[in-house]
Amino acid sequence: MPLQATSEPSTSPARRFWMRILAVGLAILMPLLLVEVAVRVRQYFRYGTTRPEIAVLHYDPTSGLSVPLPGQMSKNIWINSLGFRSPELVNPKPKGTIRLAFIGASTTFCAEVSSNDATWPHLVWKAAQEHWPGVRFDYLNAAVAGFGTLQSITNLESRVKPQQPDVIVIYGEAPNDLSKDSRDAAAQQGLIRGNVDDFGWFSRVSLTWSLVQKNLQVWQRQRNTTSAHAQHLVFEPAVLSRRFYEHQLELVTKAKQIAPIVVLPTFSQRLRRGQSPELQLRSANTHLYYMPHMTLDGLLVAFEEYNRVIRAVAEKTGALLVEGEDSIPADDRHFADSVHFRDAGAVVMARRVNEALFNDDTLKKLVNTQR
To answer: Which of 34-43, 314-323, 348-357 is the least confident region?
Structure first.
């Protein structure tokens, strides 16, 4: 008998439905994956890593702090075996060496500059070595992003003190302390609830989603700042800064017990008086992200107050005060955002510190002694 041709079984309606769902899902997912890849490539070329975190932190059992993981390397950042963003140190400190130590937060760690050699602490060390070639200088950059004065006190005692520094430069905690102090005050006034930047687990997985959410938040908070109906923090400057004064005084007092020279630069930021309202809003983008409860004028008043505290602490303790916070031009070439320096900003910041150091009689005597 001749064989009869058999027809292919038709695809069931349920199968066709799920195939369509799969096709639509792939059509949506593939462009998103391509965007994520592009964003991470951009992250790599800018910061030398594809991770959302520019520098990996780990828990340090000695200090109880989250500090840079020792030995990590990327295109722009190298962390030594002690967890400092600086060259390896010879320990115990060689005789005749003057050791500089820098403590603070992200504006001293300098993740936004092009390399370790472009950070302002490195430039301060380099200029000091060139200015006094007959004496050996070395340095450590112990700053950690996000640190306030309380964390810096612990950082000073547990990580910096054992390195026997001769000069301690303290810079960068002011915006983090102001952010915390103003958020606590805003919470008491019923203006905010919860964390300022908690976007959920997916933003920790996707760099694209994290950037989208942050930019949307910045845009929304800029609008809120200029809205006539928005409520903002009402504060007395001296009351708001009280905790910062107490912690800064403790930090500098303890630093003076460790090193003969303690340096306090006033804090430099991009938001300035005399700027147009549009430029002020743009200059305050980072401030408004972390402090959406503040007005532009409130931010100006608050930073002026926190710099007043820095000056008062320097006068009370005898620390070397570095003025000239507005000498760093408030533009895209010098600032990456409201507070973080690009390479050009780091150069001017280092110049501020070096000018004060070169004219300091205590350091001059120390140099002569080491010679």
So the answer is: 34-43
Task: Please check whether residue 289 is in contact with residue 337, taking contact to mean a CB–CB distance below 8 angstroms.
Answer: no
Rounded to an integer, what distance in angstroms lies between the CA atom of residue 342 and that of residue 124?
16
Asked whether 50 and 218 are in contact (CB, 8 A), the reply is: no
* Residues contacting residue 116 through CB under 8 Å, at least 6 positions apart: 76, 77, 78, 85, 86, 122
Closest listed residue to residue 111, CA positions, set 362, 337, 370 = 337
Topology adopted by domain 70-370: Rossmann fold (3.40.50)
Q: What is the pLDDT of residue 6?
A: 47
Pair 354, 124: CB distance under 8 Å = yes
How far is the C-alpha of 108 from the C-alpha of 143, rounded, in Å? 6
φ, ψ of residue 32 in degrees (nearest 5) = -65, -40
Query: What digits encode the pLDDT tens for the residues 257-290?
Result: 999 999 999 999 999 999 999 999 999 999 998 9
The residue extents of the domains of the chain are: 70-370
Q: What is the pTM of this model?
A: 0.83
Helices (H), 231-276: 237-240, 242-258
